[in-house]
Write a sequence for this structure.
């Protein structure tokens, strides 16, 4: 491993200035991510983005201006030392770059793949002021994490001496894993309880392997195990164990990260027909339970003409999965225009490359079925955009009399999720919002119960991986402070 050299060191920065002038740096075009050919990738589940070769990563890292006040760090919910890891890549110290990432992020290989960097760290890049494309921070994060994963050299934090205090985590999604990693670094004995038979939460059941391979998630989890984190599968807190049971088992602090796995539907006629299902069920059957794969018995409905209702990243995951499951025609039905879609631009681009059709400014109002009760058509209301709503997006307004019917044989509804109600319903003293989310102090992530903290979708109702991780990291900091005071 290369010797760690701080990229903020004055001598090193002077060296960089001599090697590349600002003009030379800004003249370098942003790197392009190598991708699998669309015609091939819809036939398999291989990862679409192939990762940067070392030479391309070093060149892209050279674009970083090493700003005195790096706003990219402020745009990151877990406050990664972005200039620090990028400058290590620039000088070829790839393992050192991975170590910098691990200082604040438990899941850098995951975040480098699925986080919306274009709306967070990259949106703050100084290149925007120059009317140029920002540094590809996400691509570089993935490169450093992947290099560490495949090099065979361990870059995990050193396992600290235990302080003997037991901490329980409910849920092994991004919020739970981030919290667990931080608390383990502080020396706590952390146990993560997962209701399903696989560790990883939404990272495993919600995100397809063509976007986030399970093997990548497993390596990140192994890193947490190396830190001393213990994982217990098939354990439903609220059923298998109660809040009081956890106390009796000796846990002094509890972090709830049970997610938002309760699907929502639109409440329109025909939603109970065969062939109309939630996005959660569809993706979980395929991603976690192996539906459609050799050696797996989990059934899943297939369709030749599949409609996915919604415009977020989960909708893109579902429609692209449908193409890989054999759909000859797969479409996104979205009530707003493409400009208002919350999905990442890259995901929309990949969907289009894979032959997905986009039926924007349309909203389903009814599903129709054949004599066997299987959906075969849907009625769509044409929409137009009105005034902006509370989110800042223009509200869709129905065009009077503009209704059409189209043929479908599978409908996947992806219009949002609700928080998992198990924990809120199981603890009477816990303050819960009208939406079913756990109410917390936004600064500390502590609930109305002094020993119970929460984060991720169970608090937000729906969040990105990196926002959930930020919740976990913040909760760990404040729980540690509270326990240290005691």
């Amino acid at each position: 491993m290369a010797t760690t050299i701080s990229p903020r060191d004055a001598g090193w920065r002077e060296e960089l200035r001599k090697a590349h002038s600002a003009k030379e740096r800004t003249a370098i075009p942003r790197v392009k991510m190598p991708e699998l050919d669309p015609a091939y990738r819809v036939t398999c589940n291989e990862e679409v983005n192939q990762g940067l070769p070392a030479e391309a990563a070093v060149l892209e890292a050279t674009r970083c201006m090493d700003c005195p006040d790096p706003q990219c760090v402020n745009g990151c919910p877990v406050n990664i030392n972005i200039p620090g890891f990028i400058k290590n890549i620039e000088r070829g110290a790839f393992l050192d770059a991975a170590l910098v990432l691990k200082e604040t992020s438990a899941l850098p290989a995951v975040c480098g793949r699925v986080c919306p960097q274009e709306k967070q760290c990259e949106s703050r890049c100084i290149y925007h002021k120059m009317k140029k494309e920002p540094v590809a921070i996400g691509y570089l994060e993935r490169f450093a994490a992947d290099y560490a994963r495949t090099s065979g050299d361990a870059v995990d934090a050193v396992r600290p001496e235990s302080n003997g205090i037991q901490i329980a985590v409910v849920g092994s999604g991004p919020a739970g894993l981030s919290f667990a990693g931080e608390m383990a670094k502080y020396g706590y004995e952390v146990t993560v309880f997962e209701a399903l038979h696989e560790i990883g939460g939404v990272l495993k059941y919600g995100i397809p392997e063509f976007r986030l391979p399970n093997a990548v998630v497993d390596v990140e989890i192994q890193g947490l195990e190396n830190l001393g984190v213990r994982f217990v599968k098939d354990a439903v807190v609220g059923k298998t164990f109660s809040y009081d049971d956890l106390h009796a088992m000796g846990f002094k602090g509890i972090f709830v990260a049970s997610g938002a796995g309760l699907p929502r539907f639109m409440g329109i006629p025909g939603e109970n027909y065969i062939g109309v299902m939630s996005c959660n069920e569809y993706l979980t059957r395929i991603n976690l339970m192996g539906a459609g794969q050799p050696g797996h018995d989990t059934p899943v409905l297939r369709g030749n003409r599949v409609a996915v209702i919604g415009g977020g990243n989960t909708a893109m995951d579902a429609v692209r999965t449908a193409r890989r499951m054999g759909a000859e025609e797969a479409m996104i039905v979205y009530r707003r225009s493409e400009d208002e879609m919350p999905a990442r631009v890259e995901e929309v681009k990949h969907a289009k490359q894979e032959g997905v059709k986009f039926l924007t400014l349309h909203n389903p109002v009814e599903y129709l079925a054949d004599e066997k009760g299987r959906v075969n058509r849907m009625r769509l209301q044409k929409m137009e955009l009105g005034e902006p709503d509370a989110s800042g997006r223009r509200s869709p307004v129905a065009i009077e009399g503009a209704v059409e019917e189209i043929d479908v044989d599978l409908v996947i509804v992806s219009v949002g999720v609700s928080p998992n109600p198990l924990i809120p319903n199981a603890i009477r003293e816990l303050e819960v919002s009208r939406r079913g989310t756990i109410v917390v102090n936004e600064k500390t992530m502590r609930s109305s119960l002094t020993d119970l903290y929460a984060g991720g979708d169970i608090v937000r109702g729906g969040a990105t991986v990196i926002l959930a991780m930020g919740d976990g990291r913040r909760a760990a900091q404040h729980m540690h402070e509270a326990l240290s005071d005691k």
User: Anything to note?
Assistant: Residues 1-10 have pLDDT under 50 and may be disordered. The chain is about 35% helix and 15% strand.
